[in-house]
Amino acid sequence: MDTSVVIVCAGNSTRMGGVNKILLPLGERLVIGVTMLAFEKCESVKEIVIVAREADIPAIKAEAEAAGITKLVACTTGGATRQESVINGIKQISRGTKLVAVHDGARPLVKPEHIEKVIKDASVFGGATLGVPVKDTIKTVDGGLIVDTPPRSSLYITQTPQIFKRELYFEGIDFALEHGLDFTDDCQLVEAIGGKVAMTVGDYTNIKITTPEDIKLAEVLLNY
Predict the structure, then answer these.
(1) How far apart are the first and last CA of the chain?
(2) Strand 72-77's sheet: what is its strand order?
(3) DSSP 8-state symbol, 74
(4) 3-222 — its CATH code?
(5) What is the pLDDT of residues 100-127, one digit of tens each?
(6) pLDDT at residue number 20
Protein backbone atom coordinates (compact mmCIF):
# COMPACT_ATOMS: atom_id res chain seq x y z
CA MET A 1 0.00 0.00 0.00
CA ASP A 2 1.58 3.30 -1.11
CA THR A 3 1.93 5.50 1.97
CA SER A 4 3.28 9.03 2.26
CA VAL A 5 4.57 10.03 5.69
CA VAL A 6 4.48 13.58 7.00
CA ILE A 7 6.85 13.91 9.96
CA VAL A 8 6.02 17.00 11.99
CA CYS A 9 8.80 18.68 13.97
CA ALA A 10 8.08 22.39 13.77
CA GLY A 11 7.47 22.99 17.50
CA ASN A 12 9.38 25.52 19.58
CA SER A 13 10.70 23.00 22.16
CA THR A 14 9.82 25.25 25.11
CA ARG A 15 9.90 22.32 27.54
CA MET A 16 13.41 21.48 26.37
CA GLY A 17 14.68 24.91 27.35
CA GLY A 18 14.61 26.10 23.75
CA VAL A 19 16.89 23.28 22.53
CA ASN A 20 15.43 21.60 19.46
CA LYS A 21 14.81 18.05 20.60
CA ILE A 22 14.82 16.56 17.08
CA LEU A 23 18.44 17.63 16.61
CA LEU A 24 19.71 16.13 19.86
CA PRO A 25 22.01 13.08 19.68
CA LEU A 26 20.35 9.69 20.15
CA GLY A 27 22.62 6.70 19.86
CA GLU A 28 24.72 7.08 16.71
CA ARG A 29 22.25 9.48 15.07
CA LEU A 30 20.17 12.53 15.87
CA VAL A 31 16.58 12.12 17.07
CA ILE A 32 15.15 13.03 13.65
CA GLY A 33 17.54 10.58 11.99
CA VAL A 34 16.32 7.70 14.14
CA THR A 35 12.72 8.72 13.38
CA MET A 36 13.31 8.79 9.63
CA LEU A 37 15.10 5.43 9.69
CA ALA A 38 12.02 3.74 11.18
CA PHE A 39 9.98 4.74 8.13
CA GLU A 40 12.83 4.18 5.70
CA LYS A 41 12.75 0.50 6.71
CA CYS A 42 9.01 0.10 5.97
CA GLU A 43 8.27 -1.45 2.59
CA SER A 44 4.80 0.17 2.48
CA VAL A 45 6.22 3.69 2.88
CA LYS A 46 7.14 5.27 -0.44
CA GLU A 47 8.05 8.80 0.61
CA ILE A 48 8.82 11.01 3.62
CA VAL A 49 8.02 14.71 3.98
CA ILE A 50 9.48 16.72 6.86
CA VAL A 51 7.77 19.78 8.36
CA ALA A 52 10.19 21.84 10.43
CA ARG A 53 11.36 25.28 11.39
CA GLU A 54 13.12 26.90 8.46
CA ALA A 55 16.36 27.29 10.43
CA ASP A 56 16.45 23.53 11.13
CA ILE A 57 15.94 22.29 7.57
CA PRO A 58 19.63 22.31 6.52
CA ALA A 59 20.57 20.22 9.57
CA ILE A 60 17.70 17.80 8.90
CA LYS A 61 18.75 17.35 5.28
CA ALA A 62 22.33 16.75 6.36
CA GLU A 63 21.20 14.16 8.90
CA ALA A 64 19.05 12.42 6.27
CA GLU A 65 22.05 12.14 3.98
CA ALA A 66 24.30 10.90 6.77
CA ALA A 67 21.71 8.29 7.81
CA GLY A 68 21.27 7.01 4.25
CA ILE A 69 17.63 8.10 3.95
CA THR A 70 16.45 7.62 0.35
CA LYS A 71 12.71 8.29 0.81
CA LEU A 72 12.91 11.95 1.87
CA VAL A 73 11.29 13.94 -0.95
CA ALA A 74 10.65 17.33 0.64
CA CYS A 75 11.23 19.56 3.65
CA THR A 76 8.82 22.40 4.26
CA THR A 77 8.17 24.94 6.99
CA GLY A 78 5.51 24.68 9.67
CA GLY A 79 2.52 26.89 10.38
CA ALA A 80 1.19 28.67 13.44
CA THR A 81 -0.50 25.49 14.75
CA ARG A 82 0.13 21.78 14.45
CA GLN A 83 -2.81 21.41 12.07
CA GLU A 84 -1.40 24.14 9.82
CA SER A 85 1.98 22.45 9.88
CA VAL A 86 0.49 19.11 8.85
CA ILE A 87 -1.43 20.76 6.00
CA ASN A 88 1.82 22.35 4.77
CA GLY A 89 3.33 18.86 4.69
CA ILE A 90 0.31 17.33 2.97
CA LYS A 91 0.77 19.80 0.11
CA GLN A 92 4.12 18.13 -0.66
CA ILE A 93 2.97 14.51 -1.01
CA SER A 94 2.66 12.70 -4.32
CA ARG A 95 -0.63 12.75 -6.18
CA GLY A 96 -0.76 8.96 -6.39
CA THR A 97 -0.52 8.41 -2.64
CA LYS A 98 -3.20 6.10 -1.25
CA LEU A 99 -2.56 6.51 2.48
CA VAL A 100 -1.36 9.54 4.42
CA ALA A 101 0.57 9.00 7.66
CA VAL A 102 1.28 11.76 10.19
CA HIS A 103 4.01 11.20 12.77
CA ASP A 104 5.62 13.26 15.52
CA GLY A 105 9.30 13.81 14.76
CA ALA A 106 9.97 13.51 18.49
CA ARG A 107 8.80 9.86 18.55
CA PRO A 108 12.00 8.21 17.27
CA LEU A 109 11.44 4.79 18.86
CA VAL A 110 8.42 3.75 16.82
CA LYS A 111 8.99 0.25 15.45
CA PRO A 112 8.74 -0.46 11.70
CA GLU A 113 6.58 -3.53 12.37
CA HIS A 114 4.10 -1.36 14.27
CA ILE A 115 4.05 1.17 11.45
CA GLU A 116 3.15 -1.63 9.06
CA LYS A 117 0.34 -2.74 11.40
CA VAL A 118 -1.19 0.74 11.43
CA ILE A 119 -0.93 0.93 7.64
CA LYS A 120 -2.75 -2.38 7.34
CA ASP A 121 -5.53 -1.33 9.73
CA ALA A 122 -5.95 2.04 7.99
CA SER A 123 -6.33 0.30 4.63
CA VAL A 124 -9.20 -1.75 6.11
CA PHE A 125 -11.02 0.81 8.28
CA GLY A 126 -10.09 4.04 6.52
CA GLY A 127 -8.07 5.31 9.45
CA ALA A 128 -5.92 3.96 12.28
CA THR A 129 -3.62 5.20 15.00
CA LEU A 130 -0.98 3.58 17.12
CA GLY A 131 -1.70 3.56 20.85
CA VAL A 132 -1.54 1.64 24.11
CA PRO A 133 -4.02 0.96 26.95
CA VAL A 134 -3.72 3.29 29.94
CA LYS A 135 -2.17 1.70 33.01
CA ASP A 136 -3.56 4.10 35.62
CA THR A 137 -7.07 4.92 36.75
CA ILE A 138 -8.17 8.18 35.11
CA LYS A 139 -10.37 10.75 36.85
CA THR A 140 -12.47 13.50 35.30
CA VAL A 141 -12.06 16.63 37.44
CA ASP A 142 -14.11 19.84 37.50
CA GLY A 143 -13.30 22.70 39.84
CA GLY A 144 -10.76 20.58 41.68
CA LEU A 145 -13.29 17.83 42.42
CA ILE A 146 -13.60 14.37 40.87
CA VAL A 147 -16.81 14.12 38.89
CA ASP A 148 -16.32 10.84 37.04
CA THR A 149 -14.10 7.76 36.72
CA PRO A 150 -14.13 6.46 33.14
CA PRO A 151 -13.70 2.68 32.79
CA ARG A 152 -10.00 2.04 32.31
CA SER A 153 -10.65 -0.81 29.87
CA SER A 154 -11.86 1.66 27.24
CA LEU A 155 -9.08 4.25 27.62
CA TYR A 156 -5.99 4.35 25.41
CA ILE A 157 -2.97 6.62 25.15
CA THR A 158 -2.86 7.84 21.57
CA GLN A 159 0.50 7.81 19.83
CA THR A 160 1.63 8.28 16.24
CA PRO A 161 1.74 7.46 13.39
CA GLN A 162 -1.88 8.20 12.61
CA ILE A 163 -2.73 6.95 9.13
CA PHE A 164 -5.72 7.56 6.86
CA LYS A 165 -6.95 6.91 3.36
CA ARG A 166 -6.11 9.97 1.32
CA GLU A 167 -9.67 10.90 0.32
CA LEU A 168 -11.00 10.52 3.86
CA TYR A 169 -8.23 12.62 5.37
CA PHE A 170 -8.61 15.37 2.78
CA GLU A 171 -12.34 15.45 3.48
CA GLY A 172 -11.55 15.93 7.17
CA ILE A 173 -9.16 18.78 6.40
CA ASP A 174 -11.77 20.49 4.20
CA PHE A 175 -14.37 20.16 6.97
CA ALA A 176 -12.04 21.64 9.59
CA LEU A 177 -11.07 24.58 7.37
CA GLU A 178 -14.67 25.24 6.38
CA HIS A 179 -15.82 25.34 10.01
CA GLY A 180 -12.79 27.10 11.48
CA LEU A 181 -11.75 24.08 13.55
CA ASP A 182 -8.17 23.54 14.69
CA PHE A 183 -7.36 20.09 16.07
CA THR A 184 -4.25 18.95 17.91
CA ASP A 185 -4.84 15.31 16.92
CA ASP A 186 -5.25 14.10 13.34
CA CYS A 187 -7.79 11.45 14.30
CA GLN A 188 -10.13 14.28 15.28
CA LEU A 189 -10.25 15.40 11.66
CA VAL A 190 -11.69 12.06 10.62
CA GLU A 191 -13.84 11.67 13.73
CA ALA A 192 -15.42 15.07 12.96
CA ILE A 193 -16.83 13.78 9.67
CA GLY A 194 -18.00 10.46 11.12
CA GLY A 195 -15.11 8.36 9.82
CA LYS A 196 -13.90 5.19 11.54
CA VAL A 197 -10.46 5.12 13.15
CA ALA A 198 -9.01 1.86 14.44
CA MET A 199 -6.80 1.73 17.51
CA THR A 200 -3.73 -0.33 16.63
CA VAL A 201 -1.98 -1.51 19.77
CA GLY A 202 1.75 -0.85 19.82
CA ASP A 203 3.95 -0.68 22.90
CA TYR A 204 4.97 1.72 25.64
CA THR A 205 8.47 2.34 24.24
CA ASN A 206 7.04 4.67 21.56
CA ILE A 207 7.57 7.69 23.80
CA LYS A 208 7.45 11.32 22.75
CA ILE A 209 10.56 13.25 23.68
CA THR A 210 9.35 16.37 25.45
CA THR A 211 11.70 17.02 28.39
CA PRO A 212 15.46 16.46 28.95
CA GLU A 213 14.64 13.38 31.03
CA ASP A 214 12.97 11.81 27.99
CA ILE A 215 16.23 11.83 26.04
CA LYS A 216 17.92 9.81 28.79
CA LEU A 217 15.03 7.35 28.77
CA ALA A 218 15.12 7.10 24.96
CA GLU A 219 18.83 6.24 25.11
CA VAL A 220 18.04 3.33 27.42
CA LEU A 221 15.09 2.14 25.32
CA LEU A 222 17.08 2.41 22.09
CA ASN A 223 19.44 -0.25 23.38
CA TYR A 224 16.75 -2.35 25.07
Answers:
(1) 30
(2) 72-77, 45-52, 3-9, 99-104, 156-165, 127-133, 198-201
(3) E
(4) 3.90.550.10
(5) 999 999 999 999 999 999 999 999 999 9
(6) 85
